[in-house]
Amino acid sequence: MQQVLAGKVAVVTGGTSGIGLAIATRYAAEGARLFITGRRQEALDAAVAAIDGDVTGVRADAASAADVDALVAAVREAAGRIDVLVVNAGGGSFAPLGQITEQQYRETFDSNVLGTLLTVQGALPLLADGASVVLLSSDSSAVGGAAFSVYAASKAAIRNFARSWALDLKDRAIRVNALSPGPTRTPGLVGLAPEGQGEGLLGALAAEIPLGRVADPSEIAGAALFLASPDASFVNGAELFADGGRTQV
Predict the structure, then answer these.
(1) Span 81-132, pLDDT tens digits
(2) 96: domain CATH number?
(3) What is the pLDDT at residue 48?
(4) Cα–Cα nearest to 150, from 189, 111, 104
């Protein structure tokens, strides 16, 4: 069976765990020449070892312009172009209104919004005409969430990046789409709960989803594969919800 991404060069930021690792693993299985990033060298090395395929790890913090420059330089030297760019690096934390700090705001927006901007803008010279850019947003961008407003607002900004950048890059036929997962069983989500309460958090979130469960990271990877593939050749500036219907019904 022909591999969907055979001959393609793909970059996945934040590819060391959770959704990012699942996307990277799926892309490698589909034949991509893969580059992944992570902030911690130990986790990056472990992810590279776990992925079966042609994969290179580059230590980088997406919110650092110097690190993004180093990533782009590494890809340029090794592969010369980018056909698929998945901007997944980011995160967030709980804080209700009245307890939001400037530090939390800056950390969240630097990681999610500034990091996305620096990564896509830095990669522009390497993006091939007709490339696919997938920005990881969240279904939180479309619904209210107690104590999660800063994260949700940052993901809403990413969704608008997809709209606007699809127009900025139309002359190069580069497609830019947002992928918005719902609650997914990842270390990042479980880690938001107090110690020992991770399963309780997942259970509470599952109760909000028509399918009655949270997602497995591999299911989000399947949606990311679609957006990168020729099957999505006329999908542009869109937001694909992979949330079990949580925001749709």
Answers:
(1) 999 999 999 999 999 999 999 999 999 999 999 999 999 999 999 999 999 9
(2) 3.40.50.720
(3) 98
(4) 104
Which residues have a catalytic role annotated? 151
CA distance 35 to 30: 14
Q: Is residue 3 part of a domain?
A: no
Where do we find the tokens 């959704």? 19
**Is 82 part of any domain?**
yes
Q: What is the mean pLDDT of residues 147-159?
A: 97
CA angle, residues 160, 164, 167, in degrees to nearest 5: 150
pTM across the whole model:
0.97
Residue 52 CA to residue 84 CA, distance in Å, equals 18
**Amino acid letter, residue 152:** A
Q: Does 247 fall in a domain?
A: no
- At 85 the pLDDT is 99
Quote the number of domains for the chain: 1
Domain of residue 180 covers: 9-241
CA 219 to chain centre: 13
How big is the CA angle at 154 (ends 46 and 41), to the nearest 5 degrees?
15
